[in-house]
């Protein structure tokens, strides 16, 4: 079976792909084996190198770093989503006086690396008499960068929808705000949810940049533990432990995102669908909301 865009590989292509797969696995396996061998030779698996993690105070410090990481991530994630929606609406505006400045702001914030933004806020602001705590410098920098990226994601999601969606909203008397809020935005968010979640994962990992400006998150704790000469400077061991924590957090966030995506894609259950002309359990459907807004616009004289 074949299509215009894809041809099923023949026997030679299948054999070639299998050879490439085996060679790739062998190279990766050899590299990993070499790293493990070097770690064993240099004593990285010895008890002395891992002894520091037998102290409860060390794990308490790791937990404190985890709390700081999550505190920065939660604030940055919420702020990025809010800023992303605001900037996306601004870029979708029909008025150039709004659209052009918002576009400039988005492009500038996307162009500045997060680390430079953090350093400007933490080290640069005191030169003009404004001192900022590391936490706020990290959060503001993450919100500015990721909010601008999410703005482009949401805008692209809205503009990727068929024009008929927007025209249908105008045909029933909705203004642009109503079309955007009730018709376009819900569909764009549903379509772009995987990209939004992926950007939130990036936000979580970018909190590690806060260690450069002395924000005491997980990477800062890893560097602190790794420089303890009394315990053999276990920098690799500390990095492995902190990496496992980051991987666990990213997997948890991806798992939550998968659940949310499945629930959104399923939509309302068939048995719970409201009958025509009625609402079940007092829930208001999108059609009802549209009708309410049209009625409101008619009363104010703004409906067509």
TrEMBL record:
Location, primary (coarse class): membrane
Keywords: Cell membrane, Membrane, Transmembrane, Transmembrane helix, Transport
Gene Ontology terms: biological process: amino acid transport
UniProt domain ABC transmembrane type-1: residue ranges: 66-257
Entry keyword annotation includes Translocase: no
Subcellular location: Cell membrane
Domain of life where this protein originates: Bacteria
GO MF term list: transmembrane transporter activity
Annotated Gene Ontology cellular component terms: ATP-binding cassette (ABC) transporter complex
Signal peptide per UniProt: none
TM region(s), chain numbering: 20-40, 70-90, 102-123, 135-158, 179-202, 235-260
InterPro entries noted in UniProt: AA_ABC_transptr_permease_3TM, ArtM/GltK/GlnP/TcyL/YhdX-like, MetI-like, MetI-like_sf
Recorded topology in the membrane: Multi-pass membrane protein
Gene3D superfamilies according to UniProt: MetI-like (1.10.3720.10)
NCBIfam families to which the protein is assigned, alphabetical: HEQRo_perm_3TM
Family label: Belongs to the binding-protein-dependent transport system permease family.
Identification of the protein by name: Glutamate transport system permease protein
Lineage of the organism: Bacteria, Bacillati, Actinomycetota, Actinomycetes, Micrococcales
